[in-house]
Amino acid sequence: MADLDVAVAGAGFAGIYAVHAFRSAGLTVRAFEAGSGIGGTWFWNRYPGARCDVESKDYSYSFSPELEQDWSWSERYPAQPEVLRYLNHVADRFGLWPDIQLNTRVTAASWDADQAEWTVTTDDGASVTARFFVSAVGCLSAYQVPSLPGLETFAGPWYHTSRWPADGVDFTGLRVGLIGTGSTGIQVAPEIAAVAEHLYVFQRTANFAVPNRNGATDPAWEAGFKADYRSYRKQAQKSFLGVPIAGTGRPALAEPPAEVQRTLMERWQAGGGMPFLGAYTDVLVDRDANDIVAEFMRDRIRETVADPAVAELLLPRTYPVGAKRLCQSDDYFAMFNRPNVTLVDIRSAPLTSVSARGLRTADAFYELDALVFATGFDAISGALNQIDVRGVGGVPLAGKWSAGPRAYLGVAPAGFPNMFIVTGPGSPSVFSNMVLSIEQHVEWIRDCVLYAGAHGYATVQAKPSAEDAWMAHVTEVAYATLFPLADSWYVGANIPGKPRVFTSYLGGVGPYRARCDAVAAAGYEGFALDRRLAMSSSVHPQAQLILDGMAAAGGPPIWEMTPEQARAVVTANNEHIGPGPDVASVRDVVIPGQAGGIPARVYSPAAGAPGVVVYYHGGGWVVGSVDGWDASVRALAVASGCDVVSVDYRLAPEHVFPAAADDAYDALEWAAGELADGRPVAVAGDSAGGNLAAVTALRARDLDGPALALQLLVYPVTDCDLDRTSYHEYDGAEFIVNRRDMAWYWDHYVPEPAARMNPYASPLRAPDMSGLPPLYLVTAEHDPLRDEGFAYADRMRAARVPVEHRHYGSQIHGFFSFVNLLDDADKAISEAGATIRAVAKG
Ligand code: NAP
C-alpha cells in the first residue's frame, strides 16, 4: 500500500489549499516545499515593492466563508509581507503544518505501473510512495538569470528579485543597475531609486503600465463586499478572468472616439489593469482597437515624464497592449523625473558583459556597486521540468513537453497516470485570478481522486486523443487573439531555445470551469479509468477466514455437483451466519403469481415504514432461499426502516428462464399494488438476485409497470459474457464463485445460449438504459462479477441514470450476506439502508 494518498509538490497558494482540501476529504496528503516557509511565489519574491496586482478582495481564498469574513486586508492591493502573513494564518487556522514538509525539494517522481503509485523523491534522499502526485509548483517559480559573460567577476553583490534575501538589502549610497522592466522591475525600481545614490534602469522592451490607485482599505467598502461575499465569489467563478469586472460590453471601434477616450480615462483614474483592459470587447482581438488603447497609454507616459527623450524611450511600441502582462504601478514613470535615475536603452545597444566594476553595453560602460536582475522566469513548464518526472514506460515529462507543455484540460498530462498539475499548461492559470483558478483545480482534482476511489479505479489518466483535442482548442482560441503577437513569457519567448507555444487557455474562467464540470459529470470523459490494478489490495482478514473455512471443509466445486448437492452445501454454509437482528413483524405470505403462488416473507421493522423493498436472494438462480438469506434481509429491513419483501422465486433447472424473472416481476406488482399503498417501492437483490432486480426494473419500465424509486444491485449478474477481466482474475477455486461455477449456473438457468442475449437474462444487453430508476450499486474487489457490475454502472451513467456506486476494495463475492461474520457486511447494509431510507422519505 502506498504511504500516502496524495503527494503534493509545493506549498504556495495551491499546495496549501491542496493539503486542506485532500485532508478534509479523508485522504492522507503531504506537501513538500523547498522553501523554509510556505507561500511559494509570496515566500520567494520578497523584493521591495512586491505587491499583488489583483485586488485583495479577489486574491484570497474563497473556500471558507469564516476565513473571508475574519481576515481584513489593509490595502486594496496587498503587499508581499501581508500576503505571506495571510497564508501563514491559513495554515495555522486550519492546522495544516503537520502535513507540510518544509526545506524539502521534490527532485523526482516516477510512476510505478505494477503498484499503481508514484514514488516521489526529495533532496534529502528520502522517498515516499503515493497513489496520486499533484504538482503545485506554480507557473512562475523557475527564475532566470541571463547568461552575461563575466557575471562571476562582478565585485559587488547581485540579486535576482525572486531570491531576495529575507532580511532585505540596503542600497543606500550605492550605484545600482537594474535589468528588467516587466511587472517586477517596474515595482522594484522606485523602491531602489528612493535610497540608492543612482539607479540605472536597463530596458530592453518598454512596457505598458496602468496605475493601481492603491490605498488603505476603506472600512465601508470592506463591509460592503463582505456583506455579500458569497454571491460575489459566485460571480467571480463565472466571470472571464476570475474577477467580476464590468466592461462596457461594446467594441471600442463601434464607439465614438471621444466616448472611448472618456471611458478609458475614467478607468485610468479608477486604477487597475483588468477593468481598464476589459473596458471594450475588441481590445485583445482587434489591432485597430488595441492601438487606440495603446496610444491612450503612451499619452499618459508623455504627460508624466518630463524629459521628452526619456519619455520617447519609455513608449511601448513593439507589441499590442495586453499581449504581454499589463504592469501596474503608481510611481514607475514619474520615477524617471528623479535626478538619480537613468534609463539605458539596451535594445539599440545590448548588454555585452559584466566586469568587476560594472556593466558594459555595446556603446558604454556603467560603473555599478550592485546589480539587480528582474529578468523573469522559465514560466509554466520551467519549475516542473526541474523535477525528473517519469510516467508510463519511464518517459520523462520534460521529453513529452519538448515541443511545448501540454495537458488535458490543463490539469492532466497524458501518459502520466494519477498525476495532476494545478494551473497547468492549457488552463486559464496566468490569465486569471490565480487564487480562484487554484481553488477550482484543487477541488476538481480532489473530486476526481474521490471518484476513482469510490468506483474502485486504481488509475486515472488522460487519453492522448483528449489531450490533443484540448490543446488544439487552446491554440485555436489563442490565435483568435492578439496575444501570440508579443515575444512574451506566455509563449516562452523569454527563454532562449524554448519552443514558441501558447499554452494558456483564453476561453475564460467561467466557460473553462463549466467544461471541467461537464467532464466530471460524464464520468471523467476523456480519461481512461482502470481498475485492474486495484486488485493489489488484499482480501480482508475476516473474509479470508471464511474462504479458509470453506477450503478446509473440502468437497467438490459447485460445477461438479448436482443442483440438490449444491443447495445442501449452500444451506449448510448459511447456517454459519447465525441469526439476523430482531424485526418488529415478520410474516410469510404467498404472492399470487401468473404461474402459481410465490412464497415470500415480509419484514416490517416498524409501523409507518416509509417505503417497500422487494428483495431477490442470490444463488445463481439454482440455489438459495428466503430462509438462507434471512439474516441479511432482516439487517436491511432494520437499516432501511422499510418493509422488505423477500421472494422465494422458482429455481432452475426445474424452472428455466424466464420463470425466476417472471416471479420476480409478479412479486413487484403485488408489492406495489397490495403492500405499498402509495409508498415508494425499490427492487433489490444480490448476485443472481441482483440480476432479477435489474431485469425487474427493465420490465417495469418496458411494461409501464410500477414506478420504482431505486434499484439496489449487489454484485449483480448483468451479463452472460464470462470473459471479462475479473472472471479471469478470479478463476481459481479459492473464491466463493468462479468462471466454471457461473457457467454451470447459466447452463441451468438459460440452457439455450442464444436466449442468454435476451436483456431480461443479461440486462447489460438492453439497447436502451434511459428512464430506469436510480442505481445503487455494490461491488466487491475479489469477485469475478466485479467488472460486469462496473459495466452496468457505466451504461447507466451514459444514459444519464443517477448512479451511486460503492466498491468494497478488500471484499469477496457474497460478502453482503455475511452479517455477523464480516464488519463490511454490516457497513454495506447500513450504507445501502441509509440510501433506501432517504429515497423512501423523498
Ligand atoms: P518578465 O515579465 O518576464 O520581465 C522580465 C524583464 O526582464 C523584461 O523586461 C525582459 O525584457 C527583461 N529581460 C529578460 N532577459 C533579459 C536579458 N537577457 N537582457 C535584458 N533584459 C532581459 O518577468 P517579471 O517582471 O518577473 O514578471 C513575470 C510575471 O510575474 C509577470 O508577468 C506577472 O505575471 C508576475 N508578476 C506579478 C506581479 C504583480 O502581481 N504585481 C509582480 C511581479 C511579477 P524583454 O521584455 O525584452 O524580454
What does this structure look like?
There is one protein chain. It is elongated, with a radius of gyration of 34 Å. The mean pLDDT is 95. With 842 residues, the chain is α/β, with parallel strands linked by helices. Strands 1, 2, 3, 4, 5, 6, 17 and 18 form an 8-stranded mixed beta sheet that branches. An 8-stranded mixed beta sheet has the order 21-22-24-23-25-26-27-28, with helices on both faces. The protein is built from 26 helices and 28 strands. A hairpin with a 3-residue loop joins strand 13 (351-354) and strand 14. The longest helix is centred in the middle third of the chain and has 21 residues, at 434-454. It is 34% helix and 17% strand. Bound molecules: NADP nicotinamide-adenine-dinucleotide phosphate (NAP). Residues 51-53, 140, 146, 179-185, 187, 204-205, 325, 328, 346, 351, 374-377, 430, 489, 494 line the site of NADP nicotinamide-adenine-dinucleotide phosphate.
